[in-house]
């Protein structure tokens, strides 16, 4: 889970509950030493995703919808039925994201621009950390 904007902290919350502060965070030097092994991956994730999220000033609804879109990612090894179900769910969340953006931004060109910027974030989630 990304902790890109929480209580004035810059960093990433890992699934085990650990928090890894980003270099620009004052607590960077106090981080757990065991996280140093993963630092290059965390740094890559932060630059590709978190910094862009901060620049876009995503609201909570956009954040949740992007998370749902990431979860419903089609994988080639899925059965045809599963692929169709995932594809439909993902498209539903993409449509909801666009509807949400249109309620915030009445100018059609600006809402399309914001939508494209948010969807470009998805490329950063496909990075392999193996």
Overview of the molecule:
Residues 1-130 form the NR LBD domain. InterPro entries: C.elegans_NHRs (IPR052499), NHR-like_dom_sf (IPR035500), Nucl_hrmn_rcpt_lig-bd (IPR000536). Keywords: Receptor, Transcription, Transcription regulation. This is NR LBD domain-containing protein. It comes from Acrobeloides nanus. The chain has 130 residues and is mainly alpha-helical. It has 2 domains: 2-56, no CATH class; 60-125, no CATH class. Helices cover 55% and strands 10% of the residues. The chain is built from 5 helices and 3 strands. The protein has helices spanning 39-56, 60-71, 80-104, 108-120, 122-125; strands at residues 2-6, 9-13, 19-21. A 3-stranded antiparallel β-sheet has the order 1-2-3. A hairpin with a 5-residue loop joins β2 (9-13) and β3. α2 packs antiparallel against α3 (80-104) and α3 (80-104) crosses α4. The longest helix has 25 residues, at 80-104. The chain is flat and about 45 Å long. The relative contact order is 0.12. The model has no long low-confidence stretch (mean pLDDT 77).
């Amino acid at each position: 889970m990304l902790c890109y904007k929480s209580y004035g902290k810059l960093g990433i919350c890992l699934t085990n509950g650990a928090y890894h502060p980003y270099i620009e965070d004052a607590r960077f030097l106090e981080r757990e030493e065991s996280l140093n092994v993963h630092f290059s991956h965390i740094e890559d994730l932060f630059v590709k995703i978190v910094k862009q999220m901060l620049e876009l000033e995503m609201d909570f609804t956009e954040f949740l919808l992007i998370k749902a879109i990431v979860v419903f990612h089609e994988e080639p090894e899925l059965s045809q039925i599963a692929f169709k179900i995932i594809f439909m769910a993902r498209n539903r969340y993409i449509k909801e994201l666009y509807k949400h953006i249109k309620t915030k931004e009445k100018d059609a060109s600006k809402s399309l621009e914001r939508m494209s910027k948010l969807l470009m974030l998805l490329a950063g989630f496909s990075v392999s950390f193996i």
